[in-house]
Design a protein that fits this description.
Chain A: This is Dynein light chain Tctex-type 1. The complex is a heterodimer. Chain A has helices at 14-29, 36-56; strands spanning 61-71, 77-84, 91-98, 102-112. By secondary structure, chain A is of the alpha+beta class. The two termini of chain B are 33 Å apart. The chains are: A alpha+beta, B alpha+beta. Chain A binds chain B through residues 34, 36, 39-40, 42-44, 47-48, 51, 54-55, 62-86, 90, 107, 109, 111-113, and chain B through 40, 42, 45-46, 48-50, 52-54, 56-57, 60-61, 69-93, 97, 114, 116, 118, 120-121.
Amino acid sequence: MDDFQSGDETSFVVDEVSSIIKEAIESAIGGNAYQHSKVNQWTTSVVEQTLSQLTKLGKPFKYIVTCVIMQKNGAGLHTASSCFWDNSSDGTCTVRWENKTMYCIVSAFGLAI
Amino acid sequence: MHGGTAGRHPPPGPSKRFPVAAVDAILKDVLGSYLREQPYEAARCRDMAKDIAEIIKARVKDLMIPRYKIVVVTHIGQLNEQSMQIGSRCLWDPASDTFSSYVFKNASLFALANVYAVYFE
């Protein structure tokens, strides 16, 4: 007797979240060159758009979305994360995007309620 | 026979609030002690970012705060006259969930550590 849930309603689907993030990045900064005065507004807009699309999925999750926008200058950047959660229901997705003048790295973490 | 009131009980909330100050101190201590004299080196800093995230998670777990899930994110980058912006937003319950953040800088690198604590019933 199969008892398991298909998991679609209550698990973190990486592909779905990844495409949400990509769309948010493209619409906020796609086609723009790095501008220090706009960066604050851009990170806010990427993160808020991602969060609102994630909310529309209607899943019982709390979300944390982090965005890094860095000017291309030859400098190195390393990011790591470590999480204490429930492996079967929680998940994370990171998208790396770049254009000629900047890098954008967005991470989304979803924790089941 | 009357039923009782149909009202909901308000959600109980965490019995022990997350100690943000203690976590701030952990972040300051870990970043400071691991990176104080460390010059930026790509391979070494890549491993340090992972190790530091794991160590911070372990120390926060040692605080034994019940019913909280923890997410630790660390960034280590080279200081090179470039400009950058790091931001995050969370969709959660502000009454029970919180975060702690610390930035460390030395002559050749910077490090940012964020700890997010999310309550679950």
